[in-house]
Amino acid sequence: MDRYSRLRRILVEVKSEAVGLSEEHIATVQSVILQFNDIQKRADETFLRENRSDIARINKIVSGQI
Are residues 54 and 46 in contact, defined by beta-carbon separation less than 8 angstroms? Predict the structure, then answer.
């Protein structure tokens, strides 16, 4: 789950630097940040329920998104 936090932090850094990014790219990065925030919340909830198969499924989805 730390992966989601790290990835989100990296995306926030990219967005804050925004050197050479168009408004469209910045909006896309913001959208991805929000998506990963949602994914992290779902992963945290799943972990608390200890349903490991859901965590594996979420990780597979994230890998595909990356």
Answer: yes
Q: What is the mean pLDDT of each run of 10 residues along the chain (66 residues)?
A: 74 80 87 83 76 70 71
CA distance 34 to 30: 6
Judging by beta carbons within 10 Å of its beta carbon (0-12, 13-18, 19+), is residue 3 exposed, middle or buried?
middle
| Amino acid type, 18 | A
Residue whose entry in the numeric block shows the structure tokens 């949602």: 38
The three-state secondary structure class of 37 is: helix
pLDDT in the model for residue 53: 66
pTM of the model: 0.59
